[in-house]
Design a protein that fits this description.
four-stranded antiparallel β-sheet, about 90 residues, 4 strands, mainly beta, 1 helix, Alpha-Beta Plaits, about 10% helix
C-alpha cells in the first residue's frame, strides 16, 4: 500500500551534509546554488520529522511544501470566442 507523501523544503548552511538527510525521507532535489533540499516524507509523520530535522546543526529552516494543496484543475468562466472570428 502506498502511503501519502508530503514535501519538505530544508534550507541548509552548506549542501555538503545534504546526503545525511536521506535517512529521514526521499531526497527529490538538491540545489547547490541556493542551499536547499526538497525531501519527501510520509504525511502522517511529517510534523515529527520536521522537529527532528530542525534540531540538526547544519539546518537553517524547515518549511512544508504546499504543492499538494494547490488546485491543478482549471476552469474558464469566460465563453470561447473563437467561433466569432472564424470565416
Amino acid at each position: 500500500m502506498i502511503s501519502e507523501r508530503t514535501g519538505l523544503i530544508i534550507w541548509l548552511q552548506d549542501t555538503k551534509q545534504a546526503k545525511n538527510l536521506d535517512k529521514y525521507g526521499v531526497i527529490y532535489y538538491i540545489s547547490r546554488q541556493m542551499n536547499y533540499v526538497v525531501l519527501y516524507v510520509n504525511a502522517d509523520r511529517a510534523e515529527d520529522t520536521m522537529k527532528i530535522i530542525q534540531r540538526l546543526p547544519y539546518v537553517k529552516k524547515v518549511e512544508r511544501s504546499y504543492r499538494g494543496e494547490i488546485p491543478t484543475e482549471y476552469t474558464s468562466n469566460t465563453p470561447d470566442k473563437t467561433r466569432f472570428y472564424s470565416f
